[in-house]
Design goal:
Largest sheet of chain A: 2 strands, antiparallel
Mean pLDDT of chain A: 87
Structural class of chain B: alpha+beta
Low-confidence stretches of chain B: 1-28, 406-422
Order of helices and strands of chain B: HEHHEEHHEEEEEEEEHHHEEHH
Radius of gyration of chain A: 26 Å
Structural class of chain A: mainly alpha
Number of domains of chain B: 2
Strand order of the largest sheet of chain A: 1-2
Radius of gyration of chain B: 25 Å
Low-confidence stretches of chain A: 1-36, 553-557
Mean pLDDT of chain B: 86
Number of helices of chain B: 10
Oligomer: heterodimer
Largest interface: A-B, 19 and 20 residues
Helix content of chain A: 40-55%
Number of helices of chain A: 24
Shape of chain B: globular
Number of strands of chain A: 10
Number of strands of chain B: 13
Distance between the termini of chain A: 27 Å
Strand content of chain A: under 5%
Strand order of the largest sheet of chain B: 1-4-5-7-8-10-11-13
Chain lengths: ~575, ~425
């Protein structure tokens, strides 16, 4: 059973009212700081989660704890995407035998390097008199130090004792102190406490019927949200001494993390997830049709979009909605071939703008979007339109019927139907196809000036391409028109809010959190749709850490809405 | 009657207008031309030759043969001849073993002027052999009666389409070499270009109409960047290339486009060229382009000019002046080994090639001796649209070079003075 979200119309009325109140109540209309006079509404909170580290989080955590030079030679299991985000899938996927095998391989390699003769002085805070002797004091310091960083909390006495017993037993067999520590470290690196973010609830309820996550879990949730990595020593200390309980200290930590070097990485991780860049691992293009496509182009295309996003949102403190209209075009030589633009810079990124002739505007006109949502040998207005609705508007589009006839649509050399619009027009007349294509195709057709790789064109099979399009009730022309429509679509910003909260918590919002989500929408609007302001508001909110005891998340999640074509 | 004529004229005009409009529209949409400028990267280059000797009967005296005994490549070769029972491989190993062990063992590839006349080096003597190329001097020349005031009389060829006066004496020199036939190895030197060792760029500026323009500015440059290829190893259009910053590799001239054919005024051109990691120059004097330019920006045609015989012999046969990546003379054993190895593998004598080049040189007479010193040389080339930028670009190895990790010779550790003995 699924709980239906509040109706679209009602939510926008509520959101608009909140936004108006906010604007009236705050003198600063566009600021990265959360409006001061806004009262966070009561929220139900959600269940404590059990989340598996993503590959990016695993690698970032190891780099932070042991250093970026420690190799991690493992092939991670493919991530599960749920409700549009891998971050959601981390709380739903199990651990396969293959995954454990890879974790064990990585752990063995990491431990071998950390305890190697060349590196051990960096990591082991003391030394035995002779390597053959077991130094319990030294082993304890090692276990406590790295246990806290890896488990993201202070280890209890019994846990430390257990790990020391492991080390002692290993020493008895291996007769080498460092080999014993290595064995123990492997155990720590494959422990559920490291691989999974096991959220704990604070013992003392904050108020009747509601609890908070315990202080280390809060620190962990905060850190992975704002840095993509485990809490650093300063944050762990604030959790250990209880100072993180104070709102002022929480705000100080949030500001510290958001001004630190890892914050950009966290924003990149979010958008990598939202834009489904993991699908690039499977992206194939016909080399005869798109000879310019290669792994470098695939990697640079993703980086181009992420650079555009972080430059706009973080460096220039820009409005999220402008991502759909920006003509900023960081390019490499490899991308220049696809975009057909000169790139004088040889071995680095060249800042610039898309040529006016190409009509490109917004990240939806980037190769990362156009190529990812196309077929191997041709463009696809349908896939692009579907992605626009799902990725940017959080709308759910159903899969095609199993018995649909694709013969006409697949014949992209037809002289009778030279353009994709012609082929889709014929295809979409079939009753079983019409309903969904009516929603997907008009937006995607506006991007038909870009082929299946994303290169600009004006003709297909000799015929001029018509790039008029529509999104819900709004009509426009070409990529720039689509960008304008997206930037002004009310669901574009509310979708971002919802995705961000889900990214932060690993779950869909509960019905009892809808007022809180509207509060976030209003906060986002009042801040001029600055993403850092939204992230800060989430990180400082009570709701982010609030727990509903015994909540069953499996039956309480909200889902992306079915597209209706009605934006009102 | 009159109305019919008018009507017919109107119809004709309408059709003409429609055709013109379509053409103009196509021109206007020419993606490769931006503000009257266009860039190109040469994607294919090979000598302009002719049909194989078997087909055109250009070699009635037979095909070129190489050294009867490979030791003959050395000026002093007593005791170096192949011994009874000695295999080819064993003989080669012994030759190369001694060739570089003593300074006194000099070879004819590095010193072709010391060789005796080689009757085994065959040249094209067949009648009416059509060749690829263009008429460079505007005349149909003959050794029997010069059609122009020509100090270097020569027999021009006919073109593939019956044109007269094709100046392509280099074909006469190599046309009877097995490796210059269509299945041979000698005309595939573009492989080094496709592997990124060198490249060639063309620019057009001041273009008002890609089909007809009385005056355009033309640049022919060596590229500072490797050519960009698809996974199938096909050159890609619209890549960015920086032109070579050394002025010796930058040639600028004027030209014109007529009926979609670009022709340029003569200019000295120089591109880079690499053999076995030996870096060489490939100059072409009084070079001119004759290229068909299509609406997609693809060009096909000829780069034709004259090559100084010593230059041609150096870059194509002896590698005598080849350098390493740091600009120093490449190790002797690499240059000599490559020259001798090439002669052995491709089946000619170095002195025979040298003599033939001078014999058929058709330009640049020495004022003192009257000896002609340059030979007409033509290339068939294709070019794709590209972005050509004139910017100094740092190598990805620049930091390593600055830190003193530049490349050093790996073939010959001997001092250059010692290694210079030929």
């Amino acid at each position: 059973m699924f709980v239906k979200p509040v109706g679209t119309f009602a939510r926008y009325v509520m959101g608009a009212a909140l936004a108006l109140w906010l604007i009236a109540a705050t003198s600063a209309g566009a600021s990265n700081a959360a409006p001061q006079l806004l009262a966070e509404p009561q929220s139900s909170g959600g269940p404590a989660m059990l989340r598996r580290l993503t590959e990016a989080q695993y690698r970032a955590t190891i780099a932070d704890v042991f250093g970026p030079d420690i190799p991690i030679p493992a092939r991670f299991e493919r991530a599960l995407r749920a409700e549009g985000l891998i971050a959601m899938g981390t709380s739903e996927a199990g651990l396969s035998a293959f995954a454990m095998e890879q974790y064990n391989t990585a752990a063995s390699s990491i431990a071998a390097v950390v305890l190697s003769a060349e590196q051990r002085q960096r990591f082991v805070p003391c030394a035995p008199v002779v390597a053959e002797a077991f130094n319990a004091h030294c082993a304890r310091k090692f276990v406590q130090r790295y246990g806290a960083r890896l488990y993201r909390r202070t280890l209890e006495a019994g846990e430390v004792g257990g790990l020391l017993d492991v080390a002692r037993s290993a020493h008895a067999r291996l007769n080498d102190f460092y080999a014993a520590l290595e064995f123990t470290l492997v155990g720590m690196l494959v422990a559920p406490d490291f691989l999974l973010r096991i959220e704990q609830v604070q013992g003392q309820p904050a108020e009747a019927g509601h609890s908070r996550l315990d202080i280390f879990t809060r620190a962990t949730r905060l850190s992975y949200f704002l840095t993509g990595s485990a809490p650093d020593e300063e944050l762990l200390q604030a959790a250990a001494d209880g100072s993180l309980d104070a709102h002022e200290e929480l705000a100080r930590q949030v500001d510290r993390l958001m001004s630190g070097p890892r914050y950009t990485g966290a924003v990149r991780e979010f958008f990598t997830d939202m834009l489904r860049f993991d699908l690039f691992d499977d992206l194939a293009k016909d080399p005869l049709i798109y000879p310019a496509f290669n792994p470098t182009v695939a990697a640079d295309a993703q980086e181009q979009t992420l650079r555009t996003i972080t430059d706009h949102l973080l460096v220039n403190e820009g409005d999220y909605r402008e991502l759909f209209t920006t003509r900023a075009a960081p390019l490499t030589r490899s991308l220049g071939i696809v975009y057909r633009q000169p790139v004088p810079m040889r071995n680095d990124w060249q800042e610039g703008e898309f040529s006016a002739r190409s009509g490109r505007a917004g990240i939806q006109s980037h190769v990362s979007f156009l190529a990812l949502h196309s077929h191997p040998g041709r463009s696809s207005p349908t896939l692009r339109g579907k992605a626009i609705r799902e990725v940017f508007l959080c709308q759910h589009m159903p899969d095609p019927p199993v018995d649909v006839d694709f013969t006409g649509i697949n014949d992209d050399t037809s002289t009778a139907r030279p353009t994709a619009r012609d082929r889709l027009r014929a295809h979409a007349t079939e009753t079983q196809c019409k309903g969904c294509h009516w929603l997907m195709d008009p937006a995607g057709l506006a991007l038909e000036h870009y082929d299946g790789l994303g290169t600009f064109r004006t003709r297909e099979n000799g015929a001029a391409i018509d790039v008029s399009g529509a999104l819900d009730s709004r009509e426009f022309v070409a990529a720039a028109g689509l960008g304008e429509a997206l930037s002004e679509h009310p669901q574009a910003t509310s979708c971002l809010v919802r995705r961000m909260y889900r990214f932060a918590t690993g779950r869909a919002e509960l019905p009892g959190e809808h007022a809180y989500i509207e509060y976030l929408n209003a906060t986002f609007a009042a801040a001029g749709y600055r993403v850092p302001a939204l992230m800060r508001a989430i990180a400082l909110s009570d709701a982010f850490y609030r727990v509903v005891p015994n909540a069953d998340k499996s039956i309480a999640v909200g889902h992306d809405e079915d597209a209706t074509g009605d934006s009102s | 009657m009159i109305s019919n004529v008018i009507c017919a004229k109107s119809l004709f005009c309408a059709l003409l207008c429609a055709l013109l409009f379509t053409t103009v529209q196509a021109r206007a949409e020419a993606e490769f031309l931006v503000d009257g400028s266009a860039g190109f990267v040469v994607s294919s280059i090979r000598y302009a030759l002719a049909a194989d000797a078997e087909e055109n009967a250009g070699c009635p005296e037979g095909m070129t043969t190489g050294y009867a005994d490979k030791s003959e490549v050395f000026i002093v070769h007593d005791g170096l001849q192949q011994r009874d029972g000695e295999s080819e491989d064993e003989h080669l190993k012994r030759l190369f073993g001694v060739a570089f062990g003593a300074e006194s063992v000099r070879n004819l590839c590095m010193n072709p002027e010391l060789g005796r006349e080689d009757p085994g080096f065959r040249v094209v003597t067949g009648e009416n052999v059509p060749v690829f190329g263009i008429d460079m001097d505007g005349a149909t020349s003959s050794v029997d009666g010069p059609a122009v005031q020509d100090a270097c009389p020569h027999d021009d060829f006919a073109g593939m389409n019956g044109e007269s006066g094709i100046d392509n004496q280099y074909y006469r020199v190599v046309g009877c070499s097995a490796q210059y036939q269509s299945t041979g190895l000698s005309n595939s030197f573009e492989l080094e270009m496709l592997s990124g060792s060198w490249g060639m760029l063309i620019t057009l500026d001041g273009v008002d109409d890609i089909a007809n323009d009385d005056e355009v500015q033309v640049g022919i440059f060596a590229s500072a960047d490797p050519i960009q290829l698809s996974p199938n190893r096909e050159p890609l259009p619209y890549a960015t290339y920086a032109l070579h910053q050394d002025p010796r590799f930058q040639a600028r001239t004027t030209g014109r486009i007529s009926g979609g054919v670009l022709t340029t005024d003569p200019v000295d051109v120089r591109i880079e060229w690499v053999v076995n990691s030996i870096r060489l120059d490939r100059p072409l004097d009084d070079a001119r382009l004759h290229m068909i330019l299509d609406d997609e920006g693809v060009m096909d045609g000829y780069l034709a000019g004259y090559t100084n015989v010593e230059d041609l012999y150096n870059y194509n046969y002896s590698f005598r002046n080849g350098t390493d990546g740091t600009g120093n003379l490449a190790p002797l054993r690499l240059r000599a080994g490559s020259a001798i190895g090439k002669a052995f593998v491709l089946g000619y004598t170095c002195e025979g090639a040298y003599q033939a080049l001078y014999e058929f040189a058709d330009a640049d007479p020495d004022p003192a001796t009257g000896r002609c010193r340059s030979i007409s040389t033509q290339y068939q080339i294709s070019a794709l649209p590209a972005f050509v930028v004139n910017e100094a670009t740092a190598s990805s190895n620049a930091e390593l070079d600055a830190a003193g990790f530049g490349r050093t010779g790996v073939y010959d550790a001997r001092p250059a003075s010692e290694a210079e003995g030929r």
